[in-house]
Amino acid sequence: MKIIIINGPNLNLLGKREPEIYGSETFEEYFEALQTKFPQIELHYFQSNIEGELITKMQDVGFSFNGIIINAGAYTHTSIGIGDAVKAITTPVVEVHISNTFSRESFRHQSYISGNAKGVILGFGLKSYELALLSFL
Hints:
CATH class: Alpha Beta
CATH superfamily: Dehydroquinase, class II
Helix content: 25-40%
Order of helices and strands: EHHEHEHEEH
Shape: globular
Number of helices: 5
CATH architecture: 3-Layer(aba) Sandwich
Strand content: 15-25%
Distance between the termini: 9 Å
């Protein structure tokens, strides 16, 4: 089983950025722990701060991987293009957010991804990614 985690803008700053919201662990550290916990999954990771790169990566893997977990960061709330990419591919997508976006600013309550995703997991910190992985097993 091949699954990719795709992270959007500013998620490369996990471990440094607003630790009261996002915690103090880097995503690379967490990703290594996920690989150890799920050895039966061929787990890949991609991060970009650039919207088009996220879309291109989804198109590249969206017909051959078994699952995509995406945390599009702020693009969740602004990118019709990412939402359209999720709709265009055949690989199931789970939308993930580290924080509970509904307990934050009102603009974070809108998602252009959710309507085309297999599911949405939010508010469980980095554990949200693990919950998303479990949904593919």
